[in-house]
Design a protein that fits this description.
Elements: H1 3-26, H2 37-59, H3 65-73, H4 82-103, H5 107-110, H6 114-121, H7 130-152, H8 161-176, H9 186-198, H10 214-234, H11 240-262
Helix pairs in contact: 1-2, 1-4, 1-6, 2-8, 3-4, 3-10, 4-9, 7-8, 7-10, 7-11, 9-10, 10-11
Length: 272
C-alpha cells in the first residue's frame, strides 16, 4: 500500500472509531448515551490501536501531523514526505468525520444540544482561556511524542507496540484530557471540524473556528517540545531545533494572551 494512502486510511479509521465513541455517548437515543469520560478515553485509545495495527506496516501509522513533524525533527522520518503525510492525514480526518455522521444518521435530529454535536467532530475547552488551552494541548502532545519515542527505544513482543501506544492515549485522556478534550492531533480536530462545517447535520451550530487554532498549533508546538526534551535528556543533543522550540513556545503563549485580550464574548476564564 502507498504510504500516503495508508496514512489517509488509518486516520479515517481512527476518526470513525474515535468520533464514533463520542457520538455514542453524546447523541440521544443511542444505547451508550450518557456514558462517562472513561468510555470516551478507552474508545479513543482502542481507535488509535486499531489504526496503528491497520497501517503501521505500510507507513509507520503516524496518523497525526504533530507526530510526523516530531519524527522528522528527530531524524526518524524524511522531510520530503512530511507535506504528503499531513495532507493525507487531514483528508482522512474529513472522511472519518463523514463516516461518523453516516453511522449515526437518525440520531442527529434527536439531539438538540449543538455543542454535543460539535464535540463529536472537534475539541473545545472546558474553560476558555487561550493561553491555558495552548498550555494543555502543548503538555498533552509533548507527553504523546516523548512517549512514542520512549516506546520506540524499547523492545516489545512482536505485535504489542500498537497496544502500548493505545494505552498511552488512554493515559493522556484520563490524566490530561479534561481541560481541552485532548486533541493532541491537528488532523483529529481540523479534518472532522471541516466535515462538521459542510455536512447537513440537523440543528447544528457553528463549527467553532475561533478556537480551532488551539488544537492545530498547540499539538505542533507540544510535539516539538516532547521531541527536543527527548533528544536533550536521552541523546544529549542541543541544536537549532531546541532554540527554535523555545522561541515558538514563547510566541505561542504570547499569541494566546493576545487572543484572550481580543475576545469580545467576555467568556475568558481567569487564571489568577
Amino acid at each position: 500500500m502507498n504510504v500516503y494512502l495508508a496514512e489517509f486510511f488509518g486516520t479515517a479509521l481512527l476518526l470513525l472509531m474515535g468520533g464514533g465513541v463520542v457520538a455514542n455517548v453524546n447523541l440521544k437515543k443511542t444505547y451508550a448515551n450518557g456514558a462517562d469520560w472513561i468510555v470516551i478515553a478507552i474508545g479513543w485509545g482502542l481507535a488509535v490501536t486499531l489504526g496503528v495495527y491497520a497501517v503501521g506496516q505500510f507507513s509507520g501509522a503516524h496518523l497525526n501531523p504533530a507526530v510526523t513533524f516530531s519524527f522528522a525533527i528527530n531524524g526518524d522520518f524524511p522531510w520530503n514526505q512530511v507535506p504528503g503525510y499531513i495532507i493525507a492525514q487531514i483528508l482522512g480526518g474529513i472522511v472519518g468525520g463523514v463516516l461518523t455522521w453516516l453511522m449515526y444518521l437518525p440520531h442527529w435530529r434527536e439531539t438538540e444540544d449543538k455543542g454535543a454535536k460539535l464535540a463529536i467532530f472537534s475539541t473545545g475547552p472546558a474553560l476558555k482561556n487561550y493561553t491555558a488551552n495552548f498550555i494543555s494541548e502543548i503538555i498533552g502532545t509533548a507527553v504523546l511524542t516523548a512517549g512514542l519515542l520512549f516506546i520506540g527505544s524499547n523492545k516489545f513482543t512482536d505485535g504489542l507496540n500498537p497496544l502500548i501506544v493505545g494505552a498511552l492515549i488512554v493515559a493522556i485522556g484520563l490524566s490530561l484530557g479534561g481541560t481541552t478534550g485532548y486533541a493532541i492531533n491537528p488532523a483529529r480536530d481540523l479534518g472532522p471540524r471541516i466535515a462538521h462545517a459542510i455536512l447537513p447535520i440537523p440543528g447544528k451550530g457553528p463549527s467553532g473556528w475561533s478556537y480551532a487554532i488551539v488544537p492545530i498549533l498547540g499539538p505542533l508546538v507540544g510535539g516539538m517540545i516532547g521531541t527536543v526534551l527527548y533528544r536533550l535528556v536521552f541523546k544529549g543533543t542541543f541544536d537549532i531545533w531546541t532554540i527554535a522550540t523555545i522561541i515558538v513556545t514563547i510566541l505561542t503563549l504570547l499569541f494566546g494572551m493576545t487572543m484572550n485580550r481580543k475576545s469580545k464574548n467576555g467568556d475568558i476564564a481567569k487564571i489568577f
